[in-house]
Amino acid sequence: MVGCELDDDETKRGFNQYGYDGDDYISFDKNTLTWTAASQRGFTTKVKWDPNTANNQYLKGYLEETCIEWLQKYVQYGRETLERRVPPAVTLLQRKARGSADTEVLCHVTGFFPRAVEVTWVRDGQDQLDERVQSGEVLPNQDGTYQLRKILTVSPEEQRGHSYSCQVDHASFTEKKNYIWDPNMRSSNDNEGDDDLERDGRGRRDEVSEERRREVE
């Protein structure tokens, strides 16, 4: 087993060790350029390997330089991926609810990374709404980003005298953002409009002409 470690204070550690039949056999000490036998069986190998100073010097260089360089590259590649911030695109769609005068308003948040996101329907800019809100699961998109849908159902009485907005909080934002619903936007009442609110949209963006987005930061 060969490997290396690099601490935050730049302390470097490397190891090169072998096992035999499930037991420790022999390991390399890069500070003394010698081998340490874990058993009498490994002592024979130690006697052979200790005099090979050229190879032992090479192993020291590999553990302290080459291995560390590769480790730093892998850490950097991983950091660029794991720490990237991609802001979401937010779209509001509405339709009349089946069999009633209520309106269903979809807040579709998509294309964001990392996965963690907080999406909340808010009334009058302050009251968070939990009732009459359908929440989907966070789903993956084909490009490695994520999406989430939340549908608010509002009655005609609830619309009067109130404003509603979809509030989104994500690591790519410096602060929460509110996307205001405009009740005067055209509704999607056709069958294909129904599908646009109901389909999971995995890896796709909605293509509905009635969509409209308003943002207040």
Key structural traits:
Ig-like_fold, alpha+beta, disordered C terminus, H-2 class I histocompatibility antigen, Q9 alpha chain-like isoform X2, Immunoglobulin-like, 5-stranded antiparallel sheet, 217 residues, Murine Class I Major Histocompatibility Complex, H2-DB, Chain A, domain 1
Describe the overall structure.
The chain is of the alpha+beta class and 217 residues long. Helices cover 24% and strands 37% of the residues. The chain is built from four helices and 14 strands. The protein has helices spanning 40-49, 53-82, 156-159, 191-198; strands spanning 2-6, 12-20, 23-29, 34-37, 89-96, 103-112, 117-123, 127-129, 133-135, 139-140, 146-154, 164-170, 177-180, 215-216. A hairpin with a 2-residue loop joins strand 2 (12-20) and strand 3 (23-29).
Task: List strands and helices in order, with pairings.
Layout: E1 2-6, E2 12-20, E3 23-29, E4 34-37, H1 40-49, H2 53-82, E5 89-96, E6 103-112, E7 117-123, E8 127-129, E9 133-135, E10 139-140, E11 146-154, H3 156-159, E12 164-170, E13 177-180, H4 191-198, E14 215-216
Antiparallel strand pairs: 1-2, 2-3, 3-4, 5-6, 6-11, 7-8, 7-12, 9-11, 10-11, 12-13, 13-14
